[in-house]
Design goal:
The complex is a heterodimer.
Chain A lengths: L10 E9 L7 E9 L2 E6 L9 E4 L4 E4 L1 E6 L31 H7 L2 E6 L7 E4 L1 E4 L5 H4 E3 L4 E4 L12 H27 L11 H10 L5 E5 L2 H14 L3 E5 L7 H6 L3 E4 L10 H4 L1 H7 L4 E3 L11 H10 L4 H7 L2 H6 L17 E4 L10 E6 L2 E5 H4 L2
Parallel strand pairs in A: 1-4, 1-5, 6-7, 11-12, 12-13, 13-14, 14-15
Antiparallel strand pairs in A: 1-2, 2-3, 5-16, 7-9, 8-11, 9-10, 16-17, 17-18
Chain B lengths: L1 H18 L4 H19 L2 E8 L7 E9 L2 E6 L9 E4 L4 E4 L1 E6 L39 E2 L1 H4 L3 E6 L7 E9 L1 E2 L2 H4 E11 L2 H9 L7 H24 L7 H10 L5 E5 L2 H14 L3 E5 L7 H6 L3 E4 L25 H7 L4 E3 L4 E3 L3 E3 L5 H6 L8 H6 L3 H6 L17 E4 L10 E6 L2 E5 L1
Parallel strand pairs in B: 1-4, 1-5, 6-8, 11-12, 12-13, 13-14, 14-15
Antiparallel strand pairs in B: 1-2, 2-3, 5-18, 7-10, 8-9, 9-11, 16-17, 18-19, 19-20
The chains are: A alpha/beta, B alpha/beta.
Amino acid sequence: MALPAGAQGDVILVRGGTIHPATGAPIANGSVLIRAGKIAAVGTNVTAPSGARIIDATGKTVIPGLIDNHSHIGAKSTDLNDSPMLIGPQHRFLDALDWNDTDFQDAVEGGVTTIVTGPGSGENVSGMAVVIKTFGTDYTKRMLLEKGGMKFAMGPKGRTRYPATAMGVAANLRQYLIKTQEYMAAQKKWEDDGKKGNPPARDLGYEAMADVLTHKTYVRAHVHAATDVMTLLRLKDEFGFDLTLHHSTEAYKVAPEIAKRGVTAVVLPLGDRIGLSDDAMAGPYQLWKAGVKIAMHTDAPVISQKWLRLCAALAMRYGIPEEEALKMVTSNAAEIARVSDHVGTLAEGKDADLVIFNGPWYEPKSRIDFVIGDGQVIYDRAKEGK
Amino acid sequence: MRELSSRAKRGIAIVLVEGTVASFRTAAAALFLLSASLPAQERAVAIRGGTVLPISGPAIPNGTVVIRGGKVVAVGANVQVPAGAEIVDASGKYVMPGVVDAASYIGISDNDLNEPTDPMTPQNRVWEAYNPFGTFGSGQAAPLRNKEALSGGVTTQYIAPADAQLLGGQGAVLKTAGATLDALLVREPAAIDIALGTPPKTPARAANRDPFTRMAEAAMLRGLFVKAQEYQRNKSSNATLPRDLGMEALGKLLRKEIPARIQANNATDIRTALRLAQEFNFDVIIDGGAGAWDLKDELAAKKVAVVLGQVSHQYVSNEEIPDKQDYPKPDERLAGRLTNAGIPTAIATFSRAFSTLAPAGTGKWLLIDAALAAGYGMTDDQVLRAVTLIPAQILGIADRVGSLEAGKDADVIVLDGPPLSVKTWVQRVYVNGELVYTK
C-alpha cells in the first residue's frame, strides 16, 4: 500500500552501504531506515515499506551526522568577546546568533549536522555556548541545548590589567567561584528562612555561574599549557564542577591526572592550518590511550567546518583507530556536548542525521554524496553540481 | 666536483665542531665518518621494486630509480643496476620526485617577513633573512635539514617576503636540505614579490600612510615601475650614474630575467596585476588567485600561471579570520577547473607562523591537503603534477626538479602507500642524491 502523499518524503531507506554506527562494529552491506525524522532501524535485515524513498548506498560509507564540539560560527567576529568584562558568565552566545549565517552551509557540505558554537577566548569567562543543528528554518527545532556549556579561557588577557599572570588568572577565577558560592548561600538562607522580606539582590553573573556549580551546565575551558590544565583540575577538585578541556594542546603531558578525574578533552584541530610539533600532534592518541574521552573540533571559522572529518582523519594518522577517530566527531562529541540522547550514533530512536560518502570517510579525496538531517535530504551532491 | 667539495667542507666542519670538545676519540670518529662518506657520494643508489611515479610519464609498476653523483641516472622498469650500487628495497611502496612548494615563508622570522617602514623595498632579498639554523642559541651546525618540509616530502621551495608591503622584495628558490646555506640555493633572485588587496593596506592605515586604497596600491606600483624604466634608460646611456639596488632589481623584472609574483585573490586585484604586467611588459605569476576563475580566458590566453593556497584553507594571508572582501567564497573545484582550462596551476602551502603555536600549514601537509582536490575534478596525476612538475615550471627550474628523469637532480621520495592517502607517510627523502630524512 502506498503511503499518503504527504508522508512520501518522511520514509527513506539508505540501502547497501557499509554502516559505521559509532556504536559497535561497522555493518557491511547494511541499511538504515528513516521515518518521521528519526532512525527507525539499522542492520542487515531492514526492508523498506512501499512508497519509501530508496537511496542506494552500495559501495558507499554511511556514518552519523558529524558533530563539531567547538566552533564560533553564526556570530560576527566582533561579537565573540566582551573583553573589558574579563569574567562575564552572564553573556549568552544565543544573543549574538544569526541562524542564517552562510557558514552553516559549509557545515552541511562537510556533513556536519550538529555543532557547539559559543563565545571566544578573549576573557577568562566569556559566557554560555549553545548546541544547535546546522540546518533548517525552524529555530526552535534547531536548538538542542540552550545552556550548552560555560566558556572559560585560561591565560592572562593582556598585560595592562589584573590578572596578567597565570597565578592571577587562577586566583581571580577562584575568587569568583567563592563569591558564587556565597551568593548561592545567601539565596538559600533567604529561602530557608521562609522567604521573609525582600530576596537578596540578583546578579546575572553569579546566577549563571551557579548553574555550573549545580551541574546544570559545565565548564568548557580553553587551555593550551599543561600547567593551566593542572590549575583547572585543582579548581574542579575544589568546587566540584564538571569540566571539559578545549584545544588541550599540552593535555597529553598530564593525561593520567585528567583520566583519573573523568575529565573529557576536546582536542585541537589537526587541520594543516594549525601547526604543531609531532609530539603535540600525537597528543590526542596519548590522551585516548590513557582512557580520556576525546572529541575533535575545527574552531571554525579558523578551520572551515567543512573539514572536520579531515581533522579526525589526521588524529587517526597519529595512531587512533578508525572507529575511535569517528567517535571523536560523532558519539564522543555528542556525549561531551550533553546531547547524546538525540544525536551522535546511528541507533534506533536517534535523530536521522547521517552522511553518505563515496569512499572511506577519512580519505581526503572521498566526497560526500548525501547529507540527511532530521530525516530530510539536506545535501545532494548531484543536485549541487559539485 | 662541486658536490664533492661541499661534502669535503662538511666533513671538516664536523671535525671542527667535535674538536671543540677536545676529545681525540670523537675527532677520530668524525674522521672515520668523513672517510666513509666520501666514496658513498659516487656510489650509485638503486631504489627498486616500488611503484614509480615519474610525473613526466605514466606510473611504472615494479620500477627502478638509479641515482648517482647527486643526479637521477635512470628511471624505468628494466633498468640496469650498476655493480656495487646500494639497493633500496621499495617493494610495496611508492617512489616519486620530491614535492615542490611554490610558496612558503618558513625559515623567516615574523619580524623579518616585511620591512614595516616602507611599502615598497625592491632592494630587499628574502634570502638574507632566511634562517635554517634553529632558534637563537640552540640548534646544530650544518648539515641543514628542514624536517618540517622534508617530512611531507618537500625538497624544493620558493620563499619570499610576506604581504604586509605592496612590494616586499626579491624571492628565492631553495632546497630543503643541504650541507651549507649556500648549497641550498637553487635560484636567487627568483622573482619580485608583490601583494595587492587588504594585507598591504592594513599596516599602512595603522601608520596613517599610503596605501589606504586599492587605487593607491596600483598608482604607487605604477609610479615605481615608471621610475625603474627611467633608471634603466638613464643608466644605459650614462654608466657613471649612482647605483640604486632597488632599481637594479626591478631592471631584472623589466628585462624579463625574473617574473613578478603578485598576490591577488579577488577578481579586481587579479585584473590589476594583469594590467600592470601588460603596461610594463613583465612576466607575472598570480599568487593566491582565489578569484582566478572569473578571469580564466585572459589567464589562459596570456599563459599566466596561478599558485593557489591550500585546498582546505584558500586564504593565503595570515589573519585568523581573513578579510572576506579579499576573497570569493572558497571553492574546492578551483584547482581542477583552472588546470582543465589550460592554466598552469600549482597548489602551495603559503606556510608561516600562525599565532605563536608553531609554523602552520607547512610542507608536512602539502600532499594530504592537495589530495582534497582529487575529489573535486582533478585526476590523481593532475594533483601530483600540481605539487611537483607544474610548480617547478612556474619557478623556472623544471630542468632540475619536478620529475624523475635522467639528468635531473636526485630529489626522490619514498612513501609507504599511495601519495594521496591520509594514511601514507613519507619514509625516505633524498635531496641532491643524499639521504636526508628517514621515518
